[in-house]
Write a structure and sequence with these properties.
Largest sheet: 6 strands, parallel
Number of helices: 21
Shape: globular
Helix content: 40-55%
Number of strands: 13
Radius of gyration: 25 Å
């Protein structure tokens, strides 16, 4: 079977206008997929040059398919119907490995048409490395490499105001654009670059804070069958879900120049990204965290199985509608629409999310995702929300690590593993009560940011649920919720 190439699979070519740090699955099924669609349907003419940010030997590169690859987008649409769509991506022009092609890398800065920079270099990618120097070929960190490019561009175009770049990090960290700009300016100080350069970066380069969301599962297991249907070999075939969200905080230039507004509401520019971050964390991530211990203790293994179970799906839905959404700041209809989309995503038949894989570090996840809705709901109503407190109790029960039927691995900080091992052993020996076990968990002010036992009635609410789970089992205890 013929492997993808541009001679045998003719199609549009686009001008180099985008630098992309990162060759991974997510960017190819998210940014590159969007740009490809805009190129075809709205004449954006934005070709992408990929820069591999890390120095490692690779046996294959995107150049071996001349930048061509296929996306397989599948899941449930808004009507709940299965969707499966392939797209041959032509927006990606070539790949550069800067550790071997440093001159080609620097030459990107001299291209007058180059306008956009996207990145996804993992959460640790936006970092300052003090040992980096301007003359390294290249600097080791992503911000160091970007500073080298910006410095070369500033000098080549004599600091022209219209040659600044629109820089769009997609790393999953808060204020990613602000952090990247600060790191670039820190390199400028560290390398003693001119004040004129620093002013050019600050005044004529835009750094955007972003929130990105799409599940990308990578190379599909059934690739041979898919390639037979497509009629070509594609080693860079990448699969992702139907849903995607791209929230951008920054000047309008990015949206206007790439014509991103036609992708609304999936893509939107906002003045403040914080409410959208809170929405994603509380509704999407929070639903996962609340679901995992309840569903697993109820005998289920995956998110899909949980959403096919009427009791668990109903628990998740009411937790979101009644207890989480009222604590958030966006318009109610928008929040409910997002919750609808989240539950469709959980039901995606093409993705199997094992509950145990999501359970990693659940104590921290509960704090970062569900503690604020829990406390805010109590402040708003004067009552402890029954499903959030039940999820808290189920989490404590989950950290027993065993039941009469089976045992399961626990993965968390050593302090929590030790706390629960000692607590459940003592409870089994009748040395402490369920209430004392709950108090031991809630009183950890270092973890929770406060001693939660000082919240009136919280210990009692969680303890009642835990006792019901212990005595009656998770399903029966769940059925008692009102």
């Amino acid at each position: 079977m013929q492997r993808l190439n541009r001679n045998d699979f003719l199609g549009a070519r686009y001008s180099d206008r985008v630098i992309q740090f990162g060759e991974g699955n997510f960017l190819r099924a998210f940014i590159d997929w969007q740009i490809d669609w805009l190129n075809e349907h709205h004449g954006t003419d934005a070709g992408i040059v990929v820069v591999r940010p890390r120095n490692r030997e690779v046996s294959d590169s995107l150049n071996q398919q001349e930048g061509l690859y296929t996306t397989l987008i599948r899941g449930l649409n808004e009507q709940g119907e299965q969707v499966s769509e392939t797209r041959l991506i032509r927006s990606l022009n070539r790949e550069i490995q800067p550790y071997k092609q440093y001159d080609d890398f620097l030459a990107l800065a001299e291209n007058a048409q180059m306008r956009f920079v996207f990145s996804n270099t993992t959460e640790a990618g936006i970092a300052f490395v003090e040992s980096d120097t301007l003359t390294d070929q290249p600097a080791s960190s992503f911000p160091g490499k970007l500073t080298q490019l910006l410095w070369a561009r500033f000098n080549h175009f004599s600091g022209a105001s219209d040659k600044g770049w629109l820089i769009v990090p997609c790393e999953l960290i808060d204020h990613n654009g602000d952090m990247l700009r600060e790191t670039v300016l820190r390199y400028a100080d560290h390398w003693q670059l001119s004040s004129e350069f620093k002013a050019w970066v600050s005044d004529h380069c835009a750094f955007y804070n972003t929130l990105v969301d799409r599940i990308v599962t990578g190379f599909p297991q059934e690739s041979a069958q898919i390639e037979a249907e497509l009629g070509y070999e594609d080693r860079y075939l990448v699969a992702g879900e139907v849903y995607y969200q791209f929230v951008i905080q920054g000047p309008a230039a990015l949206v206007d120049e790439l014509k991103l507004d036609v992708l609304a509401p999936q893509v939107r520019r906002v003045e403040d990204i914080a409410p959208y971050k809170a929405q994603k964390v509380a509704i999407l991530n929070g639903a996962h965290t609340a679901m995992v211990p309840v569903a697993y203790l109820a005998g289920l293994e995956s998110v899909g199985e949980a959403m096919d179970d009427a009791a668990i799906a109903g628990f998740v839905d009411r937790l979101l509608r009644d207890e989480v959404i009222p604590t958030l700041d966006l318009p109610s209809d928008e929040l409910h629409t997002f919750a609808d989309a989240v539950q469709r995503r959980f039901r995606n038949p093409f993705i199997r999310h094992a509950l145990l894989s999501i359970a990693l570090n659940s104590m921290t996840k509960f704090r970062t995702r569900l503690l604020t809705p829990l406390l805010t709901s109590h402040q708003q109503t004067g009552n402890w929300p029954p499903r959030l407190t039940f999820a808290f109790a189920a989490l404590i029960a989950f950290y027993r690590g065993e039941s009469e039927e089976k045992s399961w691995p626990l993965q968390d900080d050593t302090q929590w593993l030790q706390c629960f091992a000692e607590g459940w052993t003592a409870l089994k020996a009748d040395e402490i009560s369920p209430e004392q076990l709950v108090r031991n968990v809630l009183s950890n002010a270092q973890h929770w940011g406060e001693d939660l036992t000082l919240q009136p009635g919280l210990t009692a609410a969680v303890t009642q649920h835990l006792q019901n789970i212990i005595v009656h089992g998770t399903r029966e205890a769940l059925s008692q919720l009102r």
